[in-house]
Amino acid sequence: MNKMKKIKLYYPLAILLAFTFLAGCNDAEFLTEKPETFYTVDNAFTTSEQVDQVVIGCYSHVRSLFAMGEENSTFFVFHGNGTDMYDVATIRRGQRFNDYGIITTSSNEFNNNYSHWYQLIGKANLALYAAELPQIVWGSEESKAYTTAQARFFRAMSYRNLGELYGGVPIVTEITSTPRYDYERTSRLETYQFAIDEFEAILNDLPETSPIAGRLVKGAAQHNLVQLYINKGIELDAAAKTTEAKAAYEKAISYGNDVIDNSVYALMTERFGTRKNENPEYFYATSVDKQTPNHSYTSAGYPIEGNVYWDLFQEGNQDFQSGNKEAIWVAQIDYTAFKEEDGASRLNYSRVYGPVFRDPMAKHLNNTMEDVGGRGIVQMMPTMYTRDIIYEGKWGNDMRNSEAVFRRTFLGNVENSPYYGKPVPWSVIYKVGESQDAINAAMTQCFPVSCKIATDKYTGLADGQNRSNLFRDEYLIRLPETILLRAEAKMRNGDKAGAAADINLLRSRAQCEYLVTAADVSVELILDERARELVYEEKRWNTLLRMGGTIAVDRIKEYAYWEDPRATLSKNFNLWPIPQVVIDTNKDVVMEQNPGWD
Amino acid sequence: MKSKILNLTKGLMVTFLWLSSILMFAQNMTVKGTVTDNYGEALVGVTVQVQGTTNGTVTDIGGNYSITNVPPNGTLIVSYIGMQSQTVAVAGRSNINITLIEELQSLDELIVIGYGTAKRKDFTGSVSSVKLEDSPVALMPNMNALESIKGNVPGLDIGATNSAGGEPSMQMRGQKSISGSNNPLIVLDGVIFMGSINDINPNDIATIDVLKDATSAAAYGSRSANGVITITTKKGRSEKPVITFNTTGTLQSWNSRPDLMNGDQWIESVLARNNSTDLSWLKPQEAANRDAGREIDWLDESTRTGWIQDHQLSISGASDKMNYYLSGSYADNTGVIIGDDYNRLSFLGKVNTDITDWLEIGVDASYTRSDYSGVGANIGQAFVMSPYGVMYRDEEQKLLEKYPYTQSGTNPLWGVTNGSRDNIDIRDNFRANAYAVIKLPWVEGLSYRFNYAGNLAKEDRKNFYYESHYVKEGAYDDASRYSPSAYQNLLSNANGNIDNRTISSWVVDNILNYVKTFGRHSIDLTAVATRDRRDYYQVNTTGSDFAANGNTALGVNGLHKATVQKVNINADRRTNIGYLARASYSFDDTYYLTGSFRRDGASVFGANQKWGDFMAVGTAWRISNESFMDNVDFINDLKLKLSWGKNGNQGLDPYGTLSTVRNAADANARYEFGNKSDIYYGMIPGTLGNADLGWESTASWNTGFESVLLNNRIFFDADIYFSKTTDQIFERNIPVMNGFKTIKSSLGQINNRGVELSLRTVNIAKPDFTWMTNLTFWLNRNKLTHLYGEDLNGDGKEDDDISNSRFIGKPLGAIYGYVQDGIVQESDTEYMQKNGVSAGVPKYKDITGEGEINSEDREILGYSTPSFRLNMSNTFTYKNFDLYMMLTGTFGGSGYYLSPNREAYMTNGSGLFNSNSIYIPWWTPENKSNVYPSAVFSGDGGRFMGLQSRSFLRMQDVTLSYNFKESWVKDLNLQNLKVFLTAKNLFTITSWEGDDPEVGSPVRSGSYPVLTSFSLGANISF
Questions:
Q1: Per residue in B211-238, pLDDT tens?
Q2: Chain A residues with CB inside 8 Å of B680's CB?
Q3: Which residues in B lie closer than 8 A to residue A462 (C-beta atoms)?
Q4: Under DSSP, is residue B908 helix (H, G, I), strand (E, B) or coil?
């Protein structure tokens, strides 16, 4: 009896056991991952708005690349460190980029830069992939066309940069779902051609102008085409295909004409914008409470006169939409957004490019106020070429070398200095007569300050900003660069007079006493004029490398501040190396290294 | 398999037999006898009690006892501190002499293995046990359970703890995973523990068993490649309820605090490193302090005497049918670094009871509240501040100056003591376990156990920065910076966040166990089906800009008044399933064999690779049971063992295999079109997924022996192991043309091998005096044997990954660089000329011999991993005194255990021209050094490393306790009264400079110190 009862009691338990062991049926479901707070490629896209968001990702990426989004050596190099125009200070020798005992195919700067372009291409390809998904509904054909045109612009622009810096590279036009290891290099010409074809294909999908500051317009594509056709011509010339080269230059000139001679863009010749009735004003002062009228440069007898070129770089003046007719494409920066959450919405130029008078010149020019260029830490400095040589002789009288634009007068701001309230002579600043170490420290940390990297009126001081950042928009394409490209195309096409006329458009606007003649026109002149007009704007490595030959190497050796390249630059290169890690990881196909880097 | 088990149970049901107990009735009697130890010495004060009653007595000075009213079929329980308790059946005897055995590692002691227990003597694997209950180690003021076993378990490396409430790192038998977790799995009271180790109160722990080899850990196949730490909490031990009160108070200090330069040294150093005589950069107030001879030691100002108080009250009891343990404790730690505070309140309740003779159920629940609120002082800033800097702005020393000196560095106490910042960090943890054991009646020895463990952690973290936090830099006498109007202007900077996290998890185990002894054969069969799930959910709300609101009087609770408010949600889930079958067989207590198989599924792996199979086999031979050993008198017990097995590691976080797309704030790709300030969010590719990612698995061999020698005076255990970890999951570079630079891949192999020795000796055993020594030694060597399997340079050997310091055939943690050869002297003209350097900079060996130092001159300089560890503890017992001392040492040598410490050699190079630090006797032409570079040397792009050995020897634990056995203790109805003094990290011998060698951070790193502490405490039970 007892026994029977107990058996009954255990029966349900046996069933429980069986149940728990059988529960394995839904194992697969139990182990499936379903992320709840983010998207995967499979569920991300449902609306056309999201495709535009991918395009916004491209804009953001480009701003980061071209407006010094990160403060590291890769960005310094992309912005010209190690070229004829920029070098490093004594205190930044660790990131020098012209010591070819150190620079190798494995240098991070190359890999990071190269990767940035392909990551941007990846974003553009994602936008193009998403745009074609069946579930995406577009408001209109035009809106789809404009969205995809922007994505293709970013992709084509990346290939132009890759072609200029690295030569022929693999062309990738689709997103990756499983990694490939078998990419093949194209020729430099093919890379350029891909970019040309793309830009030409989207020309009609881009508007002439846009009501939205920062969005891409047709002029930006045309400008790229000018540059690409010159690049193509240079390549063809190098291959002795003169006729084809000439055709390319003519195409370049023609696209240049489209931009320069139409009624949309024009050089600014009159004072304009937010500060058109003001002059820059500085105070020799080491603290805010001393920035009083009796410490002003004006009261000390050194007033500074504003001019239109200075206006171009004042906050609020960069957008075409606000009346700047030479703005073709502008990276958008906004202080309110910066404060709110977009830490990338700023130009850290005062910090990165700014001088450090306060260290070698502490006796006369101390602190980090406006008068010494703000809170600079001199990550890069202009070479003597950039600051002085290009203005020597007849070139000096130039608005771009005016006190407002390229400030060379610094009044001592330390009370017990003999130069208090008086200009500190450059012989004192450069420590003439002292030890070579002292001279090097002074010359590399103290230099004239461009209005492109500093200002007399910093935004956000009341909120705790410390004169490191500018909050103006940044030009990605400014008409003078198009003009200089057309001048170059004309020169290469044999029309030196035409080239001189183009250059004189800029020289006239800058109210230069000396205008160039056809006889002056040469690659050197173009490069010098670019340095005068586009200092802190152009990407100098692109310019030097796309021109081919030994231009880059020769000029680096000639103008570098430090001896390193003259001692170590034995490589004869006119392309950056394909990063070693790219060659190594692309294991299924051998990617050839660029000449000079083996 | 599932259906087979079901058939088996059905079949067994048929053969069901029920055994009823036999009851005996008889007249009660008086029992007498003597209690001695195993050396024949009489034991005084031994408790002798009749089981199941309150009837008991203690032995007199001659060890004699007499107890009346004992049932002839009753059982005596004989217990004495430091000895193993014994139960003796009376069986009608009136005279029973009892020999108690010292409570060292007992052969019959139960150890916790996966999903069950085993007797140590029957076990084939490698397990180390640390008994904390009633041990001197438990008296240490350890806030974390792991600290308690540090140095006691060969093969287990526990790192240093250097913050209030901090969790130390841990690693078992070497680094096996390159980028995955190397943490052992924690099992609490038999169930996988998915909470934070800080939520287990060390006072509640009875024992910790550490399962090291593959067979021991195999029960937890999927996650056990790094070993398993099983923690068993206390339970009731006597019928009479025992109330225990433990209390300690601890003082803490920074024992080897670095000496910062004083004012004169600092000025000398700054001028030398800047090659200048100019002092105009001193701020007026710094100059004034210098003239007045006022100096500040900023480390002094940032620290205080630390204080820990720890109180615990517990009640426990046991009867035939029931066992309970309840405890509540409170610990509060005011850290040495100002602002570094922690306190913890915890409760634990455990009850288990035999409902019937076939059903046992148990529940336990715990609640822990940890409070990490507050911000610790910034030690990094304290290191670099000017000794002439300004701490306060007022005479009363109440108003802090944010920028004490020339550089923009902020006061180390800014935001810590001045009220400009609020920080709240409170973590609640609830845990509830329930189990039921059913002794299935059909077959004797067959039982079914069901476990459910649930854990819920709630973390409430809040931060708020008031506008006053953002005071601007300015002249010292410019008080307007701190004026209400200046603050008002800074309102747009005020910001805060509320970060709420919930981590919930559960584990369900179904365990079927069959134990049977047939004559000389014993078998133990276990089958387990288990599942667990862990959910993480975080809501982080941020608010900034209070200009529109007008003030921040509501602090973080006014976050909803901020102009900009954002919410960010993070969530993930990981799930696991495991099926285990294990069989153990022993013959004649001499031959043992264990085998197990486990199949595991884990959600974190790629869709194609969720499941893995793990298995292990172990065998042991108790050679001392063989007849041929009978006349080997000096060996009491000797067991040889050998095991092999394969276990897994989950080297991935949830969703690590998916191709993600990032958007909104998370993408960090914002843009602002037009001249409005609207922020547009970009959408960007996140990661490239890999559905083929699977288990990292470790196959390992373990062999060794356990022995008891010389009449239980020496216990000597040794283990040797070899392990091989394959399919490492790590980020692997791919051609960036894919749009991604890396993808997670399974590649590579790491081998570990090592030796572990444990020697315990009873040196002196006299009634009044015993001395025991415990030595542990362990050594691990690891070797990277395969990486990506590529030979791109075509030299016929697999390529190293130099950029990540991974070298085939070498240990992980290789330090690769230039061999330093002193300092360049003025006479080294050729070297200077070839390398373009001047005298006073570090000099390097020219390995290629071409004169110039370049990347070809690099080689492996050493390894960051230690060579071996050696620990020794001694326990002295004299009458009522116990003294326990533990020396721990981690040793380098032959290039092992090195770390860069540039800052111990370089005067310059902090990035600040006038930073303070320790004084360095820099090289000058007059005062040449071959160790320290010149003051102007500010680094050479990473070539100079200043490698130092981190080897150290530390007096980790000292406890001196006095156990009151005087008669007044009994009169007060106290069962036990013990007072103790302890010292932790009493001294450390090392050549490492700056910070603690075990933490290994260099001079001026700003990391928090490892502390020395002294405590006084008492344990009272009644």
A1: 888 888 888 877 888 889 999 999 887 7
A2: 53, 56
A3: 489-490
A4: coil
